[in-house]
Amino acid sequence: MADQQSGLVFLASGNIFVLVCLGLVVSPLGKVRLGGPEATPDFGYIGWFSMLFAAGMGIGLMFFGVSEPMSHYSTAFGGISVGEDGLRTDWAPLGGAEGNVDEARRLGMAATIFHWGLHPWAIYAVVALALALFSYNKGLPLTLRSAFYPIFGERVWGWPGHIIDILAVFATVFGLATSLGIGAQQAAAGLNFLFGLGTGNSMLILLIIVITLIAIVSIIRGLEGGVKVLSEVNMGLAALLLAFIVLAGPTLAILTGFFDNLLAYGRYLPELSMPFGREDSNFAGGWTAFYWAWWISWSPFVGMFIARVSRGRTVREFLIAVLIVPTLLSVLWMTAMGGTAISQVVNDGYTAVQDAALELKLFQMLTQLPLTAITSFIGIILVVVFFITSSDSGSLVIDTIAAGGKTNAPVIQRVFWASFEGAVAIALLLGGGLAALQAMAVSTGLPFTLVLLGACYAVIRGLMNEPRD
Fold this sequence. Notes:
mainly alpha, globular, about 475 residues, about 0% strand
């Protein structure tokens, strides 16, 4: 959980990133083409969207797809509680909705979408746009320091640039370790749920080692034969699981809930994004600030990966795709997963999903639907493959930053970084579990937030000198 000051910085910065992206979409600068006026896209829309989504937040959607809407619904329904010091002790978003099922559902889903919608994707988009612009249009190395050329000039190749790239590497390593640790916990919980294999430290370590080894095989196969293929396979499996839940679950409630939840998101967005005067300090610091820190620590990794696969798109096309398409998919995913779980509690009185540990909530929800063993196994495969694509993509990005922007560094270096990420995830899990993972994401995300704010200014400066279609 972030302290009040760092939480305020995260929330305020998240709003700035969204406003910058939306401003560029509607401005004439949106006509600039990444790679120059004659550039053409390297990938079709299906492959492009698959890689955007799989790299961006696949593990998180699997882990939090059921658990977060369920948690926010439960705390909102429970209402406000105050300790002896007069401070709130509950984790309800905003003012909660004590005893009101419908309002608690709306507030819970709005709070969830807030964490998986425009704000995180704006964070990714800022980094991706900065990297793509200064690499493809300005001819600079594909590394974070290049984005600061308008600010530092030639000094960017000295110690200011070294600090920026070092911060990017640390943020990426610990942001990835957070995701890999969370993914290992859920995969272990699912395997124990199906086969009784246990969820102890030895099982978590074994999972991380095995999946890291698979990621190394993917690294050796390269971007086209590794990440792209795995991303498309995983998107197909995710779409299959999503379609099954929509059809086997409360179908009408999911379809109508998609639009209701979008409206609730719009309604509560100003309050949820307000950095100042928040009384729901547990929610704002323990959920929102952690998420913004996590997304920011992931942003060098996801941003560079998005930049690598987005040459040839106009800035407007790029930002609309990166902001809107994944946000809508996240709303649909959360509505299907979380909405089904909440319906099971409200309509069927099934409380096991509400009472389960975070990593087990998905599997408890699936027990109330047909083909539980098959869908649970698909869920485990999704977590594992998202784990692999994240490790593979992250190793590619860290290696590129560490190599000064070179994209053809020896494969052995990427193998080293993949192994190192797995080792960090194991160390953090053994050192304190989920709390240690969250604390490290926050501590590395905070200094890198300042880097991203500088990147916003640099991107606007850089775009103003580019020809427009």
